[in-house]
């Protein structure tokens, strides 16, 4: 039995417990795991939550879990998530266990066809075979839905799956998780979750022009879908350096902590995945993230408060923002994010800031923090110049420092956002 | 077939319906969470003084002259005309206010007591047209064929007083009702947000000492008997934002 | 033919304060609940934006957040000798519309009634003898006591995060609070709001005159707060755009800021907006509600069957629906028979304007909240000896000025012309140094035989249904009381240092164009037996036991306070009875 507590079945892979039972019915359960054992199913269900399978494979509002059909945006076009219910014809019911496991670990589908990395096999590859089989066992219990989905909606040449061979060669390192010696079990659990099923880097790690992870800048933030997934390394100004382990765990559990609130695509991750994870696992992720080094010392000059953008920005802030965020940028804990010292505010890339000011945004509502307060939109009253000025102001007031924002950047973002409906 | 992208939903996927029209119950149903629909704000539209949208040129001249006597100019604060009160009224009359859109306009129409409130079958826009026409007629009758705009200031004030106290009768229209209507709308134009065409440059607010649309006075609630030194601002009037 | 929909456990008519409280309680009890709301969905960041909420013309003068009389209105006459005419544009009261109801646009003044208010008639008779009651006054006891409601007042205040200073904590009178209030079991959830100059000066003057001023209990919060449901509110910023407006920064208690975030997460709850309930359907015996019929925005009719019907609309429309649906017997003022429509009341409001030396006084009236202010209760209810004053009833007196919005701040010294140079100068010279407080004397409105509601014989709504007709006028009792209270307020203004005080006591006849709060009450009152009321003490209809009627509709007469605190307490009290008694054993909860 591995060290560390196991308060819920399914938290840590435990081979020995289930070794006794062997189930036939055409599956190769060489490791002896009973796919109908409740604790196995529960573990699989939990791991599917960690991996957030539903976010892609369940079409919201359809009432048909895992039946696919949801469009996934990639920089190269859209894909439709396939049906992973046990339906034998349109789902994965007829797949062998090895085929299922290989989808997660090797990035291959039925008959070995290559998957696109919108299916984050580059991360799921870290999963143990047992965990993969537990997920399979769980998926076998969801209602089978007949729903044929043509996944590949990409334009030429991206729709040629063979091109993935090249991409995989460049950017994919298959292989299971290797615990780091000298780190605590909690850290290693956090690493297993973050780098594996959690696939945080899919959004939070910058990509190169071919869409592969920029491994030298892991978890330092990435712009996608009209938002900027922030730096979640321990960088003091732009990452989680000023947050405690408790702060991070609270954020992942409820979507809110004393300083910040989740919004945008992170709301979905909160609702479907992290808010349903155990406190132990969330702490483990927090511990791991707090140990991820960021970009290191970087001198960012604070914009002179006497400069024209700062003075104008201060006035705009006083008139439109202070009513919620406070004259001192402190916000209200759990309700209005703190701007003073905020990493979101000080990201090099201001996409998220531009988005919430132009469009408004609702913060996530969870069972622990149901309020779901929302920012109103300001696109109608603030010009590109004015948005640039007020963002420059909040990025450089109260001890913050971050590069100023230009009116042209805002102009571009305004145009992009018109085409989006979130 | 609903096309929902990964990018579409910000809330939980437990939000099964977002204020969509269901054909079953025929309503805008909300369930499963607080909906979020970006772009659903409904800000006011700025009035731009580009001609008259309701008044004829003659009516406009009369109204401008009228509002300038109701609120005369002085060295510190412009009068009703330069503050845009006539423009304000003009734009209001082509909008829902002028059309009595909010009013219950089903008949039968009958006059009641003063306490029962206005019972006219005419819309406010129609009342202006009739009232201004009757006013014009009354002025020409009394002042040798001159319309209201062509009278001297003293004569205009005479006319207005006559409407106010009922001594000046208008043909086919109640002078006192017309007076009340135009005084109310003039004051509204004078003191409402400049976005509606009046209160130009927030002159009226500056005159009285109302700082406008500030939302956060937490720094001022304890400062008793002190003049608030914040810049005067309106919904779309923020001279303090310019570089 | 209305299309019949799948059955629900409960249908709630109107999703305002009481609808939201009841919906949450019933969902919590495991019921499948649908709310039918006449108006639109409303939410802070999409409807009350900090960039344009502060628009006096749009929201105060042109009533954008309110029901349009074009959609439905009422008719009005002072007495039965007149023909009632439609209220074509709102004046004396403002009727909300949309999710959140009046909770969106209220001032958040959150009072409790006095213990004696609930036993109004028996208390007055015991103290002064039956002769003190005017012959045509029809006040009566509520059937429920302050002590019954105390835990539910507490529940509503803690839901809202009400900011105040306790005056009576479990019987102990505390300095700084209202010494006359009924005992409360615990302090307010947040401390009282800060006060402006005018409010503070009023309190000092009141103290000098021997009164005990206390801060008005406010649902505009003095500090951030998380309520027992886990919903968080922010801190009020004294913007001065409260009543008539939506709050842009989550600091005014409303269904949106206290309940809806949790209610909407319930998979067993849904609200259908832009749908108007046209009738409550009864079975053939007329003693059981089978559900409601409603009409959507396209004019299509639907029938929503349900086991339990909660009528949670505004008072006027609650009574109208009861009459149109054939619940109970319509009131006949000639015979005095029938419960539906009688004991209709409003609020007796008056004020005095104080003009001060502009070189010495600057009140910054625009720095205010909806429930800011300092009040005295010495002349409320039966807190003082009425034997020699010639009237019964009373109200609080306070400097409760909520705003400095220019178009509502144009009271000028008498003799000022209505236009011209002198008008303009007077406006300039008095804006910052006058105290114009419409709600200063906020007094009771007792019930009378000839003040009632029924269906209009002539005017119809857009569905062809008869409009509600109000027959209402002031009686001598209320007018005498108003003059008395106004004098007291004027004295305090003098004591504050006003150079001129202009008294504006309430005068008859009742004028439907003059705003007097929207505290319309009664019409289907609560009581201890079906001979004197429409509802029992739990707000359950005597006639139709699976119908509960919420709101100020139940008040047998109105007291000298804003009613919403009591409306909220009754909602919790009623919900508690439904959960603990009715659901276990559906049927009449009181056998009279």
Describe what this molecule looks like in 3D.
- The complex is a heterotrimer of chains A (422), B (243) and C (592).
- Chain A is mostly helical and 422 residues long.
- Chain A has helices spanning 38-51, 53-57, 97-105, 121-124, 129-139, 163-171, 185-195, 201-204, 245-254, 265-272, 279-290, 308-325, 343-346, 351-359, 384-396, 407-418, and strands at 71-74, 77-80, 222-224, 227-229, 361-362, 374-375.
- Chain A has 3 domains: 16-168; 185-290, Cytochrome Bc1 Complex, Chain D, domain 2; 308-364 and 372-418, Cytochrome c-like domain (Cytochrome Bc1 Complex, Chain D, domain 2), CATH 1.10.760.10.
- Chain A is globular.
- Chain B has 2 domains: 8-42, no CATH class; 57-206, no CATH class.
- The model of chain B is unreliable at 1-24 (pLDDT under 50).
- By secondary structure, chain C is an alpha/beta fold.
- In chain C, 23% of the residues lie in helices and 17% in strands.
- Chain C is built from 14 helices and 23 strands.
- Chains B and C meet through strand 1, helix 4, helix 5 and helix 6 of B and helix 3, strand 5, strand 11, helix 12 and strand 20 of C.
**CATH superfamily of chain C, please?**
FAD/NAD(P)-binding domain
Count of DSSP-assigned helices of chain A: 16
Q: What is the element string of chain A, with H for helices and E for strands?
A: HHEEHHHHHHEEHHHHHHEEHH
| Total domain units of chain A | 3
Q: Describe the biggest sheet of chain C? A: 8 strands, mixed
Alpha-carbon distance between the termini of chain C? Answer: 39 Å
Q: What proportion strand of chain A?
A: under 5%
Overall pLDDT score of chain A: 89
Radius of gyration of chain C: 23 Å
The structure class of chain A reads mainly alpha
Helix-residue proportion of chain C: 10-25%
Rg of chain A computed from alpha carbons, rounded to a whole number of angstroms: 23 Å
Report the largest inter-chain contact: B-C, 79 and 93 residues
Structure keywords:
A: mainly alpha, 3 domains, two-stranded antiparallel sheet, 16 helices, disordered N terminus, B: 243 residues, mainly alpha, 2 domains
């Amino acid at each position: 039995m591995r060290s560390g507590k196991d308060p819920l079945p399914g938290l840590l892979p435990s081979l020995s417990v289930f070794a006794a039972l062997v189930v036939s019915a055409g599956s190769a359960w060489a490791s002896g795991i009973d796919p109908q054992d409740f604790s196995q199913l529960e573990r699989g269900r939990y791991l599917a939550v960690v991996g957030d399978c539903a976010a892609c494979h369940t079409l919201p509002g359809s009432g048909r879990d895992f039946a696919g059909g949801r469009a996934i945006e990639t920089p190269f076009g859209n894909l439709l998530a396939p049906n992973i219910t046990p339906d034998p014809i349109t789902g994965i019911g007829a797949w062998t266990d090895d085929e299922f496991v290989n989808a997660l670990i090797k990035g291959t589908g039925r008959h070995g066809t290559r998957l696109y990395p919108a299916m984050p096999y580059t991360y799921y590859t870290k999963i143990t075979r047992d965990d993969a089989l537990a997920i399979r066992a769980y998926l076998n219990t969801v209602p089978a839905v007949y729903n044929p989905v043509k996944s590949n909606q990409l334009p030429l040449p991206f729709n040629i799956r063979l091109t993935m061979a090249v991409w995989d060669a460049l950017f994919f390192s298959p292989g299971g998780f290797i615990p780091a010696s000298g780190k605590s079990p909690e850290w290693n659990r956090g690493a297993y979750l973050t780098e594996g099923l959690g696939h945080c880097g899919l959004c939070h790690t910058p990509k190169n022009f071919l869409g592969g992870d920029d491994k030298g800048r892991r978890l330092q933030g990435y712009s996608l879908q009209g938002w900027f997934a922030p730096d979640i390394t321990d960088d003091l100004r732009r990452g989680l350096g000023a947050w405690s382990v408790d702060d991070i765990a609270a954020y992942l559990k409820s979507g809110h902590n004393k300083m910040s609130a989740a919004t945008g695509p992170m709301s979905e991750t909160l609702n479907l995945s992290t808010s349903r994870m155990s406190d132990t696992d969330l702490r483990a992720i927090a511990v791991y993230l707090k140990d991820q080094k960021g970009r290191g010392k970087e001198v960012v000059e604070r914009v002179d408060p006497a400069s024209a953008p700062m003075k104008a920005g201060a006035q705009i802030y006083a008139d439109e923002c202070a009513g919620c965020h406070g004259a001192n940028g402190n916000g209200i804990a759990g309700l209005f994010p703190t701007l003073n010292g905020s990493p979101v505010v000080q990201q090099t890339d201001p996409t998220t800031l531009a988005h919430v000011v132009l469009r408004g945004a609702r913060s996530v509502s969870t069972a622990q923090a149901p309020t779901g307060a929302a920012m109103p939109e300001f696109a109608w009253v603030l010009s590109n110049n004015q948005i640039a000025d007020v963002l420059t102001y909040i990025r450089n007031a109260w001890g913050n420092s971050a590069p100023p924002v230009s009116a042209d950047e805002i102009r571009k973002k305004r145009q992009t956002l018109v085409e989006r409906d979130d | 077939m609903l096309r929902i992208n990964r990018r579409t939903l910000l809330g939980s996927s437990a939000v099964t319906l977002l204020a969509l029209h269901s054909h079953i119950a025929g309503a805008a149903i909300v369930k499963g969470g607080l909906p979020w629909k970006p772009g659903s704000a409904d800000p006011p539209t700025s009035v731009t003084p580009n001609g008259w949208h309701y008044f004829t040129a003659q009516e406009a001249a009369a109204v401008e002259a009228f509002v300038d006597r109701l609120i005369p100019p002085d060295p510190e604060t412009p009068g009703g005309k330069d503050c845009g009160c006539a423009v304000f009224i003009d734009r209001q009359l082509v909008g829902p206010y002028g059309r009595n859109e909010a009013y219950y306009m089903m008949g039968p129409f009958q006059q009641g007591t003063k306490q029962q409130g206005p019972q006219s079958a005419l819309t406010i826009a129609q009342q202006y047209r009739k009232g201004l026409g009757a006013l014009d007629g009354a002025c020409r009758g009394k002042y040798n064929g001159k319309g209201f705009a062509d009278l001297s200031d003293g004569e205009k004030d005479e006319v207005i007083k006559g409407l106010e106290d009922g001594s000046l009768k208008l043909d086919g229209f109640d002078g006192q009702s017309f007076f009340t209507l135009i005084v109310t709308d003039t004051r509204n134009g004078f003191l409402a947000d400049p976005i509606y065409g009046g209160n130009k440059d927030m002159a009226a607010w500056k005159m009285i000492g109302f700082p406008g649309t500030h939302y956060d006075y937490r720094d001022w609630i304890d400062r008793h008997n002190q003049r608030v030194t914040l810049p005067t601002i309106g919904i779309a009037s923020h001279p303090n934002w310019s570089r | 033919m209305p299309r019949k929909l799948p059955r629900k456990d409960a249908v709630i008519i109107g999703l305002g304060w009481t609808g939201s409280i009841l919906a949450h309680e019933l969902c919590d009890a495991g019921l499948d609940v649908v709310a039918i709301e006449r108006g639109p969905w409303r939410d802070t960041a999409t409807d009350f934006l900090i960039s344009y909420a502060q628009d006096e013309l749009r929201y105060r003068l042109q009533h954008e957040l309110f029901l349009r009389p074009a959609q439905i209105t009422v008719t009005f006459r002072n007495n039965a000798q007149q023909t009632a005419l439609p209220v074509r544009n709102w004046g004396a009261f403002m009727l909300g519309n949309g999710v959140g109801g009046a909770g969106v646009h209220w001032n958040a003044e959150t009072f409790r009634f006095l213990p004696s208010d609930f036993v109004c008639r028996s208390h007055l008779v015991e103290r002064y003898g039956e002769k003190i009651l005017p012959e045509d006054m029809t006040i009566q006891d509520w059937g429920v006591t302050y002590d019954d409601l105390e835990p539910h007042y507490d529940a509503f205040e803690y839901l809202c995060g009400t900011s105040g200073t306790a005056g009576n904590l479990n019987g102990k009178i505390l300095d700084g609070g209202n010494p006359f209030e009924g005992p409360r079991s615990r302090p307010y959830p947040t401390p009282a709001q800060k006060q402006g100059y005018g409010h503070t000066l009023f309190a000092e003057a009141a103290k000098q005159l021997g009164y005990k001023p206390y801060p008005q209990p406010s649902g505009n919060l003095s500090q951030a707060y998380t309520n027992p449901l886990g919903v968080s509110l922010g801190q009020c910023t004294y913007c001065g755009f409260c009543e008539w407006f939506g709050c842009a920064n989550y600091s005014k208690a409303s269904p949106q800021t206290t309940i809806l975030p949790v209610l909407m997460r319930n998979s067993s709850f849904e609200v259908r907006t832009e749908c108007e309930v046209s009738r409550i359907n009864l079975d053939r015996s007329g003693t059981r509600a089978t559900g409601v019929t409603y009409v959507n925005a396209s004019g299509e009719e639907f029938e929503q069957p349900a086991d339990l019907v909660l009528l949670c609309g505004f008072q006027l429309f609650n009574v109208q629906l009861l009459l149109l649906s054939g619940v109970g017997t319509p009131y006949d003022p000639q015979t005095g028979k029938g419960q539906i429509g009688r004991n209709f009341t409003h609020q007796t409001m008056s004020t005095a304007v104080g003009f001060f030396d502009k070189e010495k006084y600057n009140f910054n009236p625009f720095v205010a909240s909806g429930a800011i202010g300092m009040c005295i209760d010495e002349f409320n209810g039966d807190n003082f000896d009425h034997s020699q004053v010639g009237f019964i009833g009373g109200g609080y007196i306070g400097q409760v000025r909520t705003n400095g919005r220019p178009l509502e701040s144009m009271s000028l010294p008498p003799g000022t012309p209505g236009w011209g140079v002198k008008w303009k100068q007077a406006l300039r010279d008095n804006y910052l140094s006058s105290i114009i407080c419409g709600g200063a004397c906020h007094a009771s409105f007792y019930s009378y035989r000839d003040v009632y509601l029924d269906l209009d014989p002539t005017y119809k709504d857009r569905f062809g249904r008869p409009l509600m007709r109000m027959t209402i006028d002031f009686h001598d009792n209320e007018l005498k009381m108003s003059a008395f209270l106004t004098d007291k307020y004027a004295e305090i203004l003098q004591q504050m240092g006003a150079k001129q005080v202009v008294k504006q006591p309430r005068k008859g006849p009742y004028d439907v164009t003059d705003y007097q709060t929207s505290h319309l009450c009664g019409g289907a009152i609560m009581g201890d037996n079906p001979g004197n009321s429409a509802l029992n003490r739990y707000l359950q209809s005597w006639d139709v036991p699976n119908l509960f009627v919420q709101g100020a509709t139940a008040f047998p007469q109105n007291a000298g306070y804003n009613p919403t605190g009591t409306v909220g307490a009754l909602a919790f009290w009623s919900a508690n009875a439904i959960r603990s008694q009715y659901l276990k054993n559906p049927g009449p909860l009181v056998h009279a």
